[in-house]
Specification:
The chain is mainly alpha-helical. It has one domain: Winged helix-like DNA-binding domain superfamily/Winged helix DNA-binding domain (Arc Repressor Mutant, subunit A, Orthogonal Bundle). It contains six helices and four strands. It starts with 12 loop residues before the first helix and ends with a strand. Keywords: DNA-binding, Transcription, Transcription regulation. Pfam families: HxlR.
Length: 154
């Protein structure tokens, strides 16, 4: 039996995630939503992306459950794109990408944005992968296991 070559048929969660939200524009839309942007025109103005690309990405993000479309909160005829719980769960992914970029893609004095904790006004601590008992894990400390119907494959 040949495995489905499409990412949506893949057993790999990374492949499926990238198929759903992994392109540049989708992640930038989600980033802007975390910054409070909700309307099509606001996303378009912030990102400078072509309207057809923005419409396509927003449609996909709604279809996969990252956004809900709701009437505008100000009572106008506009619609707003509101992050769902599923969409809000992407926050650590965006923070991780941001922190990697801050660490490796900027010179020390180069202008950049910084994500701050509202309560303390301080930059966030670097994200780390931790074991169930709290120990920091590296890639060599982990392995993949195949589950079939939620059960370890024999």
């Amino acid at each position: 039996m040949v495995e489905d070559a499409s990412p949506q048929g893949s057993e790999c969660p990374v492949a499926r995630t990238l198929e759903s939200i992994g392109d540049r524009w989708s992640l930038m839309i989600i980033r802007d939503a975390f910054d409070g942007i909700r309307r099509f025109s606001e996303f378009q103005k912030s990102l400078g992306v072509a309207k057809n690309i923005l419409a396509s990405r927003l449609k996909t993000l709604v279809e996969v459950g990252v956004f809900d479309i709701r009437p505008a909160s100000d009572g106008s005829a506009y619609k707003e794109y509101v992050l769902t719980e599923k969409g809000r769960e992407i926050f650590p992914v965006v923070v991780s990408i941001r922190q990697w970029g801050e660490r490796f893609l900027f010179k020390p004095q180069e202008t950049r944005s910084v994500l701050l904790d509202n309560a303390s006004g301080q930059p966030l601590m670097p994200l780390e992968v931790r074991s169930s008992n709290g120990q920091k894990l590296e890639p060599s400390d982990c392995h993949r296991m195949r589950l079939v119907n939620g059960v370890k494959d024999a």
